[in-house]
Design goal:
The complex is a heterotrimer of chains A (395), B (121) and C (311). Chain A contains twelve helices and 16 strands. By secondary structure, chain A is an alpha/beta fold. In chain A, α1 crosses α7 and α10 packs across α11. By secondary structure, chain B is of the alpha+beta class. Chain B has a single domain, classed as Alpha-Beta Plaits. Helices cover 16% and strands 16% of the residues of chain B. In chain B, a hairpin with a 4-residue loop joins β2 and β3. Chain B is elongated. Chain C is of the alpha/beta class. In chain C, α3 links the parallel β1 and β2. Chain C has a single domain, classed as 3-Layer(aba) Sandwich (Rossmann fold). Chain C has an eight-stranded mixed sheet with strand order 2-1-3-4-6-5-7-8, with helices on both faces. Chain C is built from twelve helices and eight strands. Chain C is 36% helix and 14% strand. The chains are: A alpha/beta (395), B alpha+beta (121), C alpha/beta (311). At the B-C interface, α1 and α2 of B face α1, α2 and α10 of C. β9 of chain A pairs parallel with β2 of chain C.
């Protein structure tokens, strides 16, 4: 029997980690993720897990130790936020390139400067081309569910890639919510045992990890990573389906909320999707056909599926909690992804970007309702007044 | 391993599963000087083996004998000759300068041009 | 049975570093690695910082390592090894892996150790991982083309501390990393050189059996950077030892002891004059630097003698 507990998003993840019982965790404290590893270290101290917890002296070393442990043949997890992820940067790429299925809880926080501890998505957007699989979570429950699935996805022999599971700093990481925890045995059974194919620690069969790779083979190794990402697409579907069947969930690559007859759609990720659902309900009460696409899988980006889900709507608004400085119109990174997905799949519809919530700036249902109203206007006029807006910024 | 393989044919992640396969790579053609056994008898002290950066001193483990040089890999640095105690003895006893290719030595370093090309194996 | 530390016995063992690597002719690092690995009978797992040793031994699709080996990045050999060693302990404890008395060794050059990797190294030994970190110190960033590091000797010409008309080579004395590591109060710290191979091998054995983190700083000549003939590697290295520029000592559980005391201390000048990187110091206007270096070497040597109870 599963049980319900009042947990923060961080604690939900810590509990998933306890149930997964990884061989090694290497992590360094950083707000707002700190609680995750702090709670987990209590599990270690109380002997509730078999994990070797490596209390590294920096995030750079955290990811380095994760790569070493993963190559060694261990099941490995870590957690970080913002500047911590930035310090890991170099090794983030190496983890993916060395095909280490590390699972990371990434509690999204704004990157410095100025230093800011609150939520936005500038951290995760920076790692979008690094070769990691990236899952987004609306709340603590989803973060918990995603972390469990991430183990299976990353370790799948066709994939062997690291996975980052995101949730919003403070907004969900520090909010108490009702979280369903599955039985320890159920989780253990779902994640199964890790069967590394080429463990470094097999001293009888020595292997070389991380050689110098020139123009003659580097490119082939990158091509292999493309293949793994391609395969991840299907593996995510399989694992998600199995998880849904087993635990009574309805996850997909994204969630289509009241989209069936929607005239306009908003695309959002993480906690803002929850706020947007309230906005959708309010508008629906007024008889307006509003719908929401909540992104769950950001990498590999489900462009085709997303485009199909949006085929038929008359306007689209993208909610971006980050800016891609210097990109066309200084839009957010998600916007560019969605625009190319739609264009390449022949879905031609007015679309605008709404940058919002940087550095933890609050976003309320009313503001999102305004976004919808503008979307309805776009739909009516058949054109876009302003391609990118910065929601809530003082002029 | 001269044939270039496609991305489907090689292990993922840049892993090299065939440990020690650099043996197939010829570094012998870097050599400007070649170690050559001279007249002074080798005592099989193995100091050349111990100090060779290229793992290129051939040893008969059973008979505890130094049997020669792995010319496919030897880069001709001359450390074997420099650390050879027999060479040191020859130099000490000799009157005047002893060239590195002096036939009286135990390990001589002889200019590679004076030999036929070793060639790729 | 433990292999006797005689070249005859050691030569019977399987070579752990295969030939065909592309380190330069006469490379000191290769000698250091071969001697050290020959001294260890147990299985080893290696991590390697980016650097000459790493690139030249693993040019894809070739590897010279007949033992498990991992390279991650430049500054993180110690933290990478933390992960490998933690994985080993975890999996052995859980019964997922057979205990085999594996010895974990991380190799880094002086750039990867004294400079960019010092944080990861300090952290890893503080955490008590059971591994040996070896710095093969050739006194500069040789892999990128001989740039100065904090290990570069005073006065040396490197490509970023060139001997110019106004500034004659490196202006600072080298960081004494061995002492920095001794200050971590770990079970074993030593300084060694391949010219005293038995000393190096004995220290290696002590280090991997000390039951905790160990650090060894091993002088490894680079003839391209030091500017000497390829066959002079061992001789020039021994001059560094005999001049007391590179004293051989160990710190075992806090006890300092010299493991080699030159019968007659050789003037530093004798070591310098054998290397092209110091040739500018022999010009009239720079000769005072040789004296300064001698003074500093003497000062450090006297201090060391004191610490080792030989003062």
């Amino acid at each position: 029997m599963s049980k319900f507990e009042a947990l923060t998003g961080n604690a939900a993840v810590s509990n998933a980690m306890r149930q997964i019982n990884p061989d090694v965790v290497a992590a360094y404290p950083i707000t707002p993720q700190t609680d995750t590893v702090q709670t987990f270290s209590e599990f270690v101290a109380d002997g509730l897990v078999d994990t070797e917890f490596v209390t590294v002296e920096s995030e750079h070393s955290a990811m380095s130790a994760c790569v070493g442990a993963s190559a060694a043949g261990a099941r490995v997890m870590t957690a970080t936020s913002a500047n911590g992820l930035a310090l890991m940067w170099e090794i983030i790429y190496i983890a993916a390139s060395n095909r280490c299925p590390i699972v990371m809880s990434l509690v999204n926080r704004a990157l410095s400067a100025p230093i800011n501890i609150h939520c936005d998505h500038s951290d995760v957007m920076g790692m979008r081309d690094s070769g990691w699989i990236i899952l987004m979570s609306e709340n603590g429950q989803e973060a918990y569910d995603n972390i469990i699935q991430a183990i299976r996805i990353g370790e799948h022999p066709d994939v062997l890639l690291p996975v980052a599971v995101c949730q919003d700093g403070f907004i969900t990481s520090h909010s108490l919510e009702r979280v369903e925890l599955f039985e320890d045995g159920e989780v253990q059974d779902f994640v199964g045992t890790h069967e590394p194919q080429w463990p470094l620690l097999d001293v009888e069969d020595p292997k070389t990890y991380g050689p110098l790779d020139f123009y003659d083979y580097y490119y082939e190794h990158k091509r292999q990573q493309v293949e793994a990402m391609e395969k991840a697409h299907g593996v995510i579907r399989e694992v998600t389906q199995e998880f849904n069947d087993r635990f009574g969930r309805e996850y997909g690559l994204f969630e289509a909320y009241r989209m069936d007859d929607a005239e306009v759609a908003v695309i959002a990720a993480n906690s803002t999707a929850g706020t947007a659902k309230t906005a959708v309900d309010n508008l629906r009460d007024q008889g307006l056909k509003a719908g929401l696409l909540k992104l769950r899988v950001f990498r590999p980006f489900p462009g085709q599926e997303l485009a199909e889900a949006l085929r038929g709507v008359s306007a689209v608004a993208v909610m971006d909690r980050a800016i891609s400085f210097g990109s066309m119109d200084n839009a957010g990174p998600l916007f560019s992804e969605v625009v190319s997905a739609l264009t390449l799949n022949d879905v031609h519809v007015p679309i605008a970007d709404y940058v919002y919530g940087l550095g933890g700036r609050d976003i309320r249902p009313g503001e999102i309702e305004n976004v919808y109203q503008e979307a309805f206007q776009m739909a009516e006029n058949g054109k876009v007044e302003r391609r990118v807006r910065y929601l809530g910024v003082r002029e | 391993m001269t044939e270039m393989k496609g991305w489907k044919e090689i292990p993922i992640g840049g892993m090299i599963l065939d440990a020690g396969n650099s043996e197939a790579y010829n570094t012998g053609d870097w050599r400007a000087f070649r170690p050559v056994p001279g007249e002074a008898e080798c005592t099989n002290c193995m100091l050349c083996w111990l100090n060779c950066p290229d793992s290129s001193i051939l040893v008969d483990a059973e008979n505890e004998e130094m049997t020669g040089f792995d010319l496919k890999h030897c880069k001709g640095c001359g450390i074997c000759a420099a650390v050879c105690p027999v060479n040191a003895g020859v130099i000490r006893r000799a009157e005047g300068e002893v060239e590195k290719d002096d036939p009286r030595l135990c390990i001589r370093m002889v200019e590679e041009g004076k030999f036929q090309e070793v060639g790729n194996e | 049975m433990v292999t006797k530390l005689t070249p005859k016995e050691l030569a019977k063992k399987e070579e752990r570093l295969a030939p065909g690597h592309r380190l330069c002719a006469g490379c000191g690092a290769a000698i250091v690695v071969r001697q050290m690995l020959a001294a260890i009978d147990e299985p080893v797992v290696l991590a390697n910082a980016t650097g000459c040793l790493e690139v030249a031994t693993t040019i894809y699709p070739y590897s010279s390592w007949r033992v498990p080996w991992i390279h991650n990045a430049f500054e993180n050999a110690a933290s990478t090894m933390s992960g490998v060693e933690a994985a080993y302990r975890s999996m052995v404890r859980q019964g997922k892996l057979e205990e085999k008395d594996v010895k974990f060794i991380a190799y880094g050059g002086d750039g990867g150790t004294y400079d960019i990797g010092i944080q990861a190294l300090s952290g890893a030994v503080e955490r008590g991982h059971q591994f040996l970190y070896v710095c093969y110190d050739n006194g500069a960033y040789m892999n990128t083309g001989i740039q100065r590091s904090s290990a570069t000797p005073f006065g040396a010409h490197t490509t970023t501390s060139p001997a110019g008309k106004v500034i004659p080579g490196k202006q600072q004395f080298r960081k004494d990393l061995t002492k920095v590591m001794a200050a971590h109060d770990i079970p074993y710290v030593a300084q060694a050189a391949p010219s005293k191979w038995r000393d190096l091998m004995q220290k290696t054995r002590k280090a991997v059996n000390c039951g905790g983190p160990a650090f060894m700083n091993v002088l490894a000549s680079c003839n391209r950077g030091w500017r000497h003939e390829t066959d002079e590697t061992i001789e020039v290295t021994q001059l560094a030892v005999d001049s007391c520029f590179w004293p051989l000592y160990e710190v075992e559980n806090g006890e300092w002891s010299l493991t080699y005391k030159p019968r007659k201390k050789v003037p530093v000048k004798k070591w310098l004059e054998r290397q092209g990187r110091f040739s500018h110091l022999f010009r009239d206007e720079n000769r005072h630097m040789i004296d300064e270096m001698q003074e500093e070497v003497d000062r450090r040597w006297e201090k060391l003698l004191e610490r080792c109870g030989e003062g």
